[in-house]
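Predict structure. Chain length: 355.
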Amino acid sequence: MQSTKIKEISYESKKIKKGTIKYKINNFPDYLKSWVKTFSGALTLFCLIILIVIPFLSTEQSYVEFFLPHFTLAMIFAILAASWDLLTGISGQISFGQSIFFGIAGYLCAYLIDYQGFPIWLSIIIGTAGAVFFSLIIGIPALRLKGPYLALGTLVFSIILLKLFLLGSLSEWLFGSEGISGLPKMSESSVLTYFIVFITMIITFIAIIQISKSKLGTIFKSIRDDETGSEASGINTTKYKIIAFMLSGVFAGIAGTYYALYNTAVNPTGNFGVTISFFAILMASLGGLATITGSAMGAFFFIFVEYILIELGAADYVQLIFALTLILVVRFADRGILKPTLERLKDLWDVLLGK
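Prediction complete.
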């Protein structure tokens, strides 16, 4: 059985090297037209239209300044969850350290704005570049580990960084437990901030989906499905796993800079905490691994569940409820809830249409 797998992967590898597996984007308009005609495509387009309309539903100050930012926050976490899904769901590299890239980007962006006077857009770019650099530094030693050991290794890196940033003796360089505060917002207009994050989320999702369907994505999936067979077929698995870490770092870094500007502050527990990585895993798992778009559903679900729990006075139980939710998803919905929900909605739609 193992030799058969190796032969199949070897055959796929040869096709990859010869360039016979290509994701042609020259027919993208036709693909988009046919995709919109599908049930999932039409439903996605409907959701996007709703998100576009939401900022204009009310002009009341309380709506624009209090309720609308929750949608912005959900989209930031959707980007973070999608970055984790790219690394784990598509590439098969289990990581519990997504907060590393998220936090480094946020801190670097905040430092450049507050202490160096850099413009916001340049700070976002440099902060994201810093996250990619750290993904390379951490990825090289961490990828000597596999499976659960890789997950534990990335978790340890995350905890080490958290403790370093909390050390009072290093507060002159790392700003201690207080972090950096008083940052400007991404924009004075909540609506403009909303659309900046919305457009970034759409670009992120399109980019990751394109990656997953490209030649590079095919290699990622072959490593995920059978790393030993991929190595036997001549694929440099270490090289491609590092690339996966770096690509994941790009999107996690963008989310980290946006989060810093959203909160107008950064601090160790809020940006490097294990909870950040936990939320990313939870959101992606709820939507379904390797679905990418499921990350958005998971992010919106949990941000608004958290909001409702806080409003009900149950803020102390938020993490407990989320942890129980993850256990239930892993136990009873290993595919997540997005695909099964879409399948049932499609069946209902077909019944209504008399198909």
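Summary: The CA atoms of residues 89 and 289 lie 5 Å apart.
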